[in-house]
Amino acid sequence: MKIIESKNYLKMSHTACQILAEQIGQNPKIKLGLATGSTPIGLYNRLIHLNKKKEISFQKVTTFNLDEYVGLPATHPNSYHYFMRENFFQHIDINEANTHIPNGMAYDLEKECIRYQQVIETAGGMDIQVLGLGENGHIGFNEPGTSFSEETHIISLEKSTREANARFFDNIDQVPKKAITVGINTIMQSKQVILLISGETKAEAYNRLVNGGITETFPASILQKHKNCIVLVDQETTFQI
Ligand code: GLP
Questions:
Q1: Where in the chain does DSSP place strands (E)?
Q2: How many helices (H) and strands (E) does the chain have?
Q3: Is 55 one of the annotated active-site residues of the chain?
Q4: Helix (H) or strand (E) holding 12
Q5: If one looks up domain 2-238 in CATH, what number appears?
Q6: Measured from the CA of 202, which atom of ligand 1 is nearest?
Q7: Which of 41, 45, 187, 192 gets the highest tally of CB atoms within 10 A of its CB?
Q8: pLDDT score, position 239
Q9: Measured from the CB, is residue 165 less than 6 Å from ligand 1?
Q10: 3 state DSSP class of 180
């Protein structure tokens, strides 16, 4: 893992944007794995800005989102479909048909996992996977204990994850208990991984990522083995260590 420390969230987002923009420039048909959560919003804002200035184009780009809550329709403000549309897709020149997000409303969720995995594999996997970090070390919604060999699957969300994400809902009871997530094996097959970490709430997880061993009880630790993983972290996180 290569670690790049930025002074603050804006600078971190700027660095992430530079890395992505350069690669989109080199490969207009790039396949991006995208994440939700508050951390990548700054990156998305910068990419939108460059797209509006016509410095980069998403017309030929394909995206695969990592995860979606089970039971939330795409119209629900807390669904990741809604999040991606509001925070990114509707502001850029991407072809909607090239954006992929698991369907958490599928009647047969197991079949949906197989379908989604096939779509990723048919495309040949991700060129770059953008990740955020859960306070418990989850990536996507791969919670502690998830096998490193998993592909797209259904996961029961930990109480701590539901608590952390309750800030987006009226109360914790409204936070779904399950999600569909791309698995760790698929994340690891991405040619490059960009992990974004910001804020003091991530300090403990960051410390464990950098100084701890590789273990399924801390899913992000597997990234230590990835051949091309860049960790972008801001000083609000590193300051705490
Ligand atoms: C959610 C998402 C993850 C994200 C994590 C951290 O659980 N499924 O993909 O990385 O939250 O979110 P935040 O960036 O808001 O801290």
A1: 2-6, 31-34, 62-65, 67-69, 99-100, 128-131, 153-156, 178-181, 192-197, 229-234
A2: 8, 10
A3: no
A4: helix 9-26
A5: 3.40.50.1360
A6: 16
A7: 187
A8: 86
A9: yes
A10: strand
